[in-house]
């Protein structure tokens, strides 16, 4: 099934918007504050340094960078201290593992490494070496191994790619960029679809072995959201003359084009990107990551404003007028999982830490756009 054929399932989507009126910067700041304050006041106890909590903090730090809100910074510092500036905490290198695992011996598993993004961001503010000591220890150990298959699932590209570029900026060590490309190349060989420019979530979902309800390629929205946002994050830190920058950029731009073509009329993306009938209805986490990716690209001159700002404004309208509730709760976030599930309930009460993080990334980039 071609992308063109799949697109026939959509009821009139396009890259244009009926209303290109920009939001006010003050309104963006208000909704960002309302959502983040609601999350933090509702979650005063800090959780572990696993991916879901850590994804929230990547958004919280961006919100801090654009607002200077010290309470938000202190919230991420308290979480980091609670986790001893570590991900998985094992100090016995002989037992360090990767692939999938939630215990503390899975030090080399990307879901335990995304926390390093926030630790590095805080280090760049506070300049206290203990904040990044564990990140350096773990990633230097990993890069010294012979393995290349660390990133075998789409989510992992958001979790760890930015860690590599952030540590490159800190150390100047080109090995971080070499290994970034090596690991990314493996991930691409497993999950990338040349026709669409999208990524399957992992090897279990490759077409035609796995198909959506209508027999189409089944690309999971949040999975591709992780990738699109992760590419934006590494392009932000890669040197302009880096030998592989053009390849990352081409993938990012192709994703942007495909995603624009399949945006729903209501501004969101459905959980199975090419088959809206597979798991119909609103979904916020993938939509927020896509919106962030578009706005970041526009802000940095890597995506056409004329082509993609209408897409971003349409999805922003969904986020602030449908997903965000009056009290600041963020709804319609698909629960933790790895695929679009037919019949799964995703409603106004469906919220999550990682979904709020994605929204904060988006709001931060919208605020930056309006402040230019």
Task: List descriptors.
single chain, 372 residues, mainly alpha, Glycosyltransferase, 54% helix, globular
Alpha-carbon distance between the two ends: 42 Å
In total, the number of strands is 0
**Class from helix and strand fractions:** mainly alpha
| Fraction in beta strands | under 5%
Q: How is the CATH topology named?
A: Glycosyltransferase
How many domains make up the 3D coordinates? 1
> What's the architecture, going by CATH?
Alpha/alpha barrel
Q: What is the CATH class designation?
A: Mainly Alpha
Q: Helix fraction?
A: 40-55%
User: Rg, please?
Assistant: 19 Å
Uncertain segments are 1-19
What is the N-to-C order of secondary-structure elements (H for helix, E for strand)? HHHHHHHHHHHHH
Choose one word for the global shape.
globular
The average pLDDT is: 95
* Largest sheet descriptor: none
Annotation field: number of helices = 13
Could you explain the architecture of this structure?
- The chain has 372 residues and is mostly helical.
- The chain has a single domain, classed as Glycosyltransferase, CATH 1.50.10.
- It is built from 13 helices and no strands.
- The longest helix has 19 residues, at 305-323.
- The N and C termini lie far apart (42 Å).
Short overview:
With 372 residues, the chain is mainly α.
Tell me the layout of helices and strands:
Blueprint: H1 3-7, H2 25-42, H3 51-67, H4 70-82, H5 115-126, H6 130-143, H7 155-171, H8 175-191, H9 221-237, H10 245-261, H11 284-299, H12 305-323, H13 353-371
Helix pairs in contact: 2-13, 3-4, 3-5, 3-13, 4-5, 5-6, 5-7, 7-8, 7-9, 9-10, 9-11, 11-12, 11-13
């Amino acid at each position: 099934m071609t992308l063109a054929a799949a697109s026939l399932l959509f009821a009139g989507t396009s890259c244009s918007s009926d209303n290109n009126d920009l939001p006010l910067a003050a309104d963006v700041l208000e909704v960002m504050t309302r959502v983040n304050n609601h999350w933090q006041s509702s979650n005063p106890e800090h959780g572990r340094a696993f991916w879901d909590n850590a994804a929230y903090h990547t958004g919280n730090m961006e919100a801090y960078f654009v607002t200077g809100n010290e309470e938000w910074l202190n919230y991420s510092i308290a979480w980091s201290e609670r986790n001893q500036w570590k991900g998985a905490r094992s100090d016995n290198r002989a037992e360090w593992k990767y692939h999938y695992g939630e215990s503390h011996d899975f030090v080399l598993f990307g879901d335990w490494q995304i926390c390093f993004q926030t630790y590095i961001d805080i280090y760049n503010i506070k300049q206290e070496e203990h904040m990044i000591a564990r990140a350096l220890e773990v990633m230097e150990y990993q890069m010294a191994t012979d393995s290349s298959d660390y990133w075998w699932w789409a989510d992992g590209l958001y979790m760890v790619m930015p860690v590599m570029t952030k540590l490159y900026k800190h150390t100047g060590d080109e090995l971080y960029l070499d290994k970034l490309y090596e690991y990314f190349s493996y991930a691409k060989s497993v999950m990338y679809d040349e026709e669409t420019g999208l990524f399957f979530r992992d090897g279990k979902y490759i077409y035609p072995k796995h198909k959506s309800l209508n027999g189409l390629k089944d690309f999971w929205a949040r999975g591709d959201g992780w990738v699109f946002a992760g590419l934006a994050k590494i392009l932000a830190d890669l040197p302009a003359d880096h030998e592989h920058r053009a390849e990352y950029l081409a993938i990012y731009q192709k994703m942007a084009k495909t995603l624009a073509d399949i945006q729903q009329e209501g501004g969101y993306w459905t959980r199975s990107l090419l088959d809206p009938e597979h798991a119909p209805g609103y979904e916020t986490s993938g939509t927020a990551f896509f919106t962030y990716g578009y706005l970041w690209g526009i802000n940095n001159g890597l995506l056409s404003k004329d082509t993609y700002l209408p897409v971003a404004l349409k999805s922003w309208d969904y986020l602030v007028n449908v997903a965000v509730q009056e009290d600041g709760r963020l709804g319609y976030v698909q629960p933790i999982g790895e695929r679009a599930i037919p019949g799964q309930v995703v409603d106004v009460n469906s919220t999550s830490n990682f979904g709020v993080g994605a929204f904060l990334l988006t709001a931060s980039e919208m605020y930056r756009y309006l402040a230019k």
